[in-house]
Amino acid sequence: MVSAKPHLSGDVNGKKSPIGTWWWNLHGIYETVDDLTPDAAMQMLVSNNVSEIYLDVSGMYSDGEMDGDPKAASFADVRTFIRRCRQYQIHVSALTGASRDTVKKWINPDLGYQEAREFFDKIEFYNLTSDPEERFTGIHLDVEPHSVSDFVDNRQFYLDQYAKMMEYFARRAHNNGLSYETDVCGNLLEDDIVCVDGKEERLLDVLFASCDTVVVMAYRHDAKRQMQFGTERYIPYAEKHGTRLMVGCETLPPCDDLTIDDIPPSITYYTIGWEKMVEEVTKLQKLLQKSGAPDLGVSVHHVHSWHKLPNF
User: Fold this and answer.
1) Is there a contact between 94 and 48 (Cβ–Cβ < 8 Å)?
2) What is the pTM of this model?
3) Superfamily of domain 11-306
């Protein structure tokens, strides 16, 4: 007989530890995706004490404007989903982002941040036409400059643009009463200096000053290495700016033929299974608590791979 799966806890030694997750497959809010029904997904998240969801809204359309995409969702679908999440005290943020060379048009200020403006226009209209219990409470950005093909050769150029874009997103989010969250890679350095509006600053200061929440993609399959891959370096900046820091945990299956989009075995909890993941993430939560920073948590990437973790 297979034993029941252990669960993540939102309480570590009597102290609240927030747990988030990414939800990339938007149609999964109303139909089965990868053998996971919407009801089973909600049950998994509630039993694992998830307190926030980052919901990809790239396929969300206003009522009556669906484009025939079978993976799309209407405003009405999303309203129903968020209302249900609120019943379990789960907040939902609108997720968007870009990777590889599509990042270039997102972060280039000379292009006017068209993608960002369209995203904000959609979220603002959605919230304006929805009841309070159906609204997004934040926006969540996953733009990854480190994945651009020529990033190594042009690191300074892209980080300068990235910093400027972060400040633009922060202004738009806060002007609309939304929290601003972003994913960052664990390889940003303290000596990464950027120039914003003629002023030189540490990139980490710009990021943590702009954001309400930073999620470090410290993707490793044990707690100690997750702390070492950026987390320990970022904690002082979270404390300095009063920013919440979440540590990302990967669950996608690994790939042997590695490209920039593939997942090496050493970074994903898929390789050690559900039970060991819970054990290591619990260790991670305790290590974060020992750091003394006031607002730290973990985020699992992502709903539809998390549920498929092997149970060795």
Assistant:
1) no
2) 0.96
3) Glycosidases (3.20.20.80)
